[in-house]
Amino acid sequence: MKTLWSSTLTLAGAASLTLGMGLNAHAQMPELSAPPAIDGEIAGDHGTHTIRMGIGLAETSPQYLSSQYFGEILSQRTEGRITVNVFPNSQLGDDVQMMEMLQTGTLDMSYPSSSPAVTYVPELAAFDLPFLLPTREAAVAVMQSDVAQSMLDAFDDNGIKALAFSENGYRQLSNSARPVSSPEDVAGLNVSGLTIRTMENPVHLSIWQTLGANPTPMAFGELFSAMEQGVVDGQENPWSTILTSNFHEVQDYGTQSRHVYTPFIIMMSERTWDSLAPEYQELVQEAARQSAEYEIQLATEYDDWARDQLEARGMQITRLDDEQIAAFQEAVQPVYAEWAPRIGEDLIAEIQAIVDATMND
Ligand code: KDG
Predict the structure, then answer these.
(1) CA-derived radius of gyration, the chain
(2) Which numeric CATH code is attached to 172-259+312-360?
(3) Does residue 64's CB lie within 6 angstroms of at least one atom of ligand 1?
(4) In the list 18, 150, 180, 316, which could disulfide-bond 185, CB 3.0-4.6 Å?
(5) Residue 142 in contact with residue 355, Cβ under 8 Å?
(6) What is the pTM for the complete model shown?
(7) What ranges do the domains of the chain cover?
(8) Is 23 a residue whose pLDDT tops 70?
(9) Is 56 in the pocket of ligand 1 (CB under 6 A)?
């Protein structure tokens, strides 16, 4: 197998090298599909570029692994003229800060959740509505739809080139206070409501307020120590993030709530985009789509595996049954009443139609 991560051989990269051989080299990672083959060199010399990309998640995350693949596509297809250096673990800033850096041109690329990007493209808040996307298939269909493409296009006015949607994933609740199997457990009967860190997004705030928690928006990079120090009781993120960010070290309880499906968005500073020759712009766009597809595949492979790993490492996980999920759905109805008119009933109906089509297939 060709060395795919030769440019930046990291811990995760080293683990990835063994994947083609069917080995599970690192306890933080399941057996993952090898990245798709890369072919087709771009003829001619269109300049040399070093692209700095900042992400929030760790080196073992699908986000990091697929970003490395993105870099590898660009490097191989330009015969080394484009290099992508990926900086994980919020080293360069959080999602909000990094999007601002894209606007000013002080950072080339970032890969935030769609949720904090609602300040640029308010329609993205549709993705934050609870239980809107019941299956991954439906979520992917929506992310690949024209509706979603127009959300990406709407970044153009903000100095950001939004290249592709991929999967952050189904968010699950974790906390250090108590097992949660109902909205009442979130609110607490004779105890106070859980203090939950949320992303910087008003719909998420509304969800947790409605459930009787005390939500606190906070940057992802500050979350581990906030939980460790007891500043917040809990948080919500996909199982893969909970595992790869070691949240289980400070969170005893998990709830398979799947309350929101969050997309990621691969973004480039418009200044960087404008500095690329048209041949390279086309390549960057194509590589972003390919790496997004690979990311969704890795995230899918990670999801249940990560939950089982967390359980094996001592996290007590409550898997909600249909009735229990229905109780949460019922409890968050006021969020729809408040937000659907603001986000746009038509937009939500369009998304719902895409979801329904996948369910009827
Ligand atoms: O790189 C992405 C992360 O910064 C962030 O978006 C992860 O879902 C996330 C969160 O909860 O902040």
Answers:
(1) 20
(2) 3.40.190.170
(3) no
(4) 180
(5) yes
(6) 0.93
(7) 3-121+143-167+263-303, 172-259+312-360
(8) no
(9) yes
